[in-house]
Amino acid sequence: MNTAEKKHMDTSEAYDAIISQCKELFLKKAADYGTAWRIMRLPSVTDQIFIKAQRIRTIENNQFSKISDDISSEYIGIINYCIIAMIQLELPPDAEENLPITQVQQLYDHYVAETKELMLAKNHDYGEAWRDLRIGSLTDLILMKIFRVKQIEDNSGKTLVSEGVKANYQDMLNYAIFALLKLSTPLKITS
User: Where on the tree of life does the source sit, at the highest rank (predicted)?
Assistant: First the structure.
């Protein structure tokens, strides 16, 4: 196995490990709260992702936090809110608000699989360039994608040449995973 294949395998395995922890938290919250997030309109989900990313940036800039959650838990929140956004985006308007846990798990797995395939394709084409990025740059990229999504939402979903909101949510999810990989600390599942 050459070095590029080993890096690809390491990224894929590490990606799966992070997603496993994020999914565990997501499903535990679904057991506790049901799918209360289904009431949220897509712009509200986008704003929740913004809050998480802005908090990360504040912590990065100040190195001080009055709330005990760390940056890792905020990235986990971004990942799970991106999954929520993709589910909300593609469920029909008349879909039930209270989804069974089995359906939530299937939807989670479906959107993660699609997003991971996108990550693998981009990693192939870009040579895993994310490995050379700083964590702060990944946060900035997430914030940029949020502002893109907000603009698309403000334009009622219409774009002239740009990718739609789903691709932006997928990119944000992948950037959050890359940041967690770069932090390379054990994840604390708290939020």
Answer: Bacteria
Which DSSP category does 189 fall into?
-
The Cα–Cα gap between 65 and 100 comes to 37
Q: What are the structural domain ranges in the chain?
A: 3-183
Express as a percent the part of the chain with pLDDT over 70: 88
pLDDT range class, residue 191, cuts 50, 70, 90: very low
**38 close to 98: Cβ distance less than 8 angstroms:** yes
Helices 42-62 & 135-154 angle (0-180, nearest 10): 150
Distance CA 33, CA 86 (A): 19
Residue indicated by tokens 């964590």: 135
Query: Would you give the DSSP letter of residue 188?
Result: P
